[in-house]
Structures are given as C-alpha cells and as structure tokens.
Amino acid sequence: MGGKCPHRSVKKRRYSHKTARRTKFLVKGDDMVYDELKKPDEERKALPLDEDLPGMGQYYCLHCDRYFPNVAVRDDHFKTKRHKKRVKQMMGPAPHTQLDAELAAGMGMPDNGPKLMSI
Amino acid sequence: MRLEKCWFCSSTVYPGHGIQFVRNDAKIFRFCRSKCHKNFKMKRNPRKVKWTKAYRRLHGKDMTQDSTFEFERKRNRPERYDRNLAEDVLKAIPKIDKIRVSREEKHHKNRMKGNKAKLLKEAVKELEQGISLVKAPSVLEKDPSLTLPKIKVQVSQQQAEENHPMEE
C-alpha cells in the first residue's frame, strides 16, 4: 500500500502511508481473521461476485483481508514480506480478547449458571 | 452496577469512566482511559506492552494461579436478593482481600529472592575491575592498607542504595 512521493531522496520515506492510515479501520481485526482461518475449508463460502471490489472480489487474501485484480497480483502478494509476517502471526497464539483481559485482572471464568435445557 | 475490565490493561472501568468501541460485528471493547484506547488504535498487542496486566501475568511478574481469583467473576445470571447472603459477602470481602494481598506480597518476595546476592556480586566485580580508576595499581601495591575487602564494603553499600529504585 502507499503511493509514491517522488521528491524524497530516502527510499523508505518515498512512500506515502496515507492510504494505509485511511483504511486502517476498514480491514478486519486480528481476532476476526484468526477465527476465519480456524474454520474448516468446507464452511468457508465461495467468494461472491462484487463489481465494486478489485477483480470482482474473486482474488482474496484471507490473512491480510485484501482483494486483488487478478491471480498474478495475488500470487505476487503471497511472496511479499508483509504477507509472510502476517501468516506467521496468524499461526501463533490466539489474539488477545476481553476474556484474556478479565483473566489477567484476577477474575475467574464467567459463570453462566446451570444449563436450562438439556442438549 | 457492573464493573467492567479494560480490554487493554485489565484495570477496572467504573460507570461513567473510559470509552467503549463497538465493532461492526457487535464485539465490545472497553477502555479505562485514552491511553489504552490510543494503544488499541495503534494495534498494539497487550501481551507485548510491559505495563499491562496481560504482560505481567504472562511473564510471571504477578501471581497467576490462586484460589482467591475464583470469587470475582462475570455472572451472567440473575441472583435473587438475600439479605443474609449479602451481609456474609460484605463480611468476607475484606478477609479475602487481606489473604490475596499477603499472597501477592509473598509472590513478590519469592520473585526478588536472588536479587541481593546478584547485586552484591556485580558490585564486587565492578570494584575489582575498576579499582585502578580510584587508585593507581602502583600506589595500591605500596600501600597495603588499601586492600580490597575494606573498600568493598563501602562501595557495595553505595551500589545497593543506587540500585534500589530499579528493583521495583
């Protein structure tokens, strides 16, 4: 992500990070992606056709929550450092949740009472 | 009145305090103050930020397994009001709190056990290596009164005092 600012001489600073910042809250949270990845393959729905998305929403990276215009670009993305980092992160322990926060605060597991209905 | 816990730092959020963020999948994230909210917006992982409870738990800084943690729970069921029970609970709260505090102190003490010996050892090593900065080696050879143990006690005490705030 990020367009070019050609006037900067340092390569790292040549890229604008405006778009990344703008779309920060449009991407899925870590825990959502993690849950999605945990699901077995059968449960995942086929990608619906959406003309607003790049490539009609057919070329999708599950780990990074990104759409690509065609297969070649997507496969290029799979080779990037950012993607590989993300894959590694998702292979690791589950993301922090509210339950983790409560356990860390010295609370026990939530008490939901006895089950009202059997089965 | 329900006291919630902050998503980021696990501190208690009292009614009227902090801010909450509801994501478009209806998940609620509560924050005790803007510091925690900002850290969340920066997508920081609470397990990697040293001042959060999650970090301290994970790295053995705080007590993890204890029976006193069983009392405070999120109870997702209605409780019928009982005057006697409420009285008993109010009586039990300070007792349990006392026990928890003492156990936490014990845990902290246990954790800091080897620290004093380690500091002393480091101070001795520094003294041995750096004595030439105070007294030239030739002077030290001439004057036998400047033996190591005599100075060692003084400097190690100073060292211990200097390093005291670091222990916490």
TrEMBL record, chain A:
Segment forming the signal sequence: none
GO molecular function list: nucleic acid binding; ribonucleoprotein complex binding; zinc ion binding
Predominant place of localization: cytoplasm
One GO-annotated biological process of the protein: ribosome biogenesis
Family label: Belongs to the ZNF593/BUD20 C2H2-type zinc-finger protein family.
Subcellular locations according to the entry: Cytoplasm; Nucleus
Keyword Nucleus (UniProt): yes
Residues covered by the C2H2-type domain: 61-83
Pfam families found in the cross-reference section: zf-C2H2_jaz (PF12171)
Protein name per UniProt: Zinc finger protein 593
A GO cellular component annotation in the UniProt record: nucleus
InterPro entries: Matrin/U1-like-C_Znf_C2H2, Znf_C2H2_jaz, Znf_C2H2_sf, Znf_C2H2_type
Keywords recorded for this protein, A-Z: Cytoplasm, Metal-binding, Nucleus, Ribosome biogenesis, Zinc, Zinc-finger
Automatic annotation (TrEMBL), chain B:
GO BP, one annotated term: ribosomal large subunit biogenesis
Alphabetical UniProt keywords: Nucleus, Ribosome biogenesis
Subcellular location: Nucleus
SUPFAM superfamilies, A to Z: Glucocorticoid receptor-like (DNA-binding domain)
One Gene Ontology CC term in the entry: nucleolus
Source organism, top-level taxon: Eukaryota
PANTHER family: 60S RIBOSOMAL PROTEIN L24, RIBOSOME BIOGENESIS PROTEIN RLP24-RELATED
Family in the record: Belongs to the eukaryotic ribosomal protein eL24 family.
UniProt protein name: Putative ribosome biogenesis protein RLP24
Species annotation: Senna tora
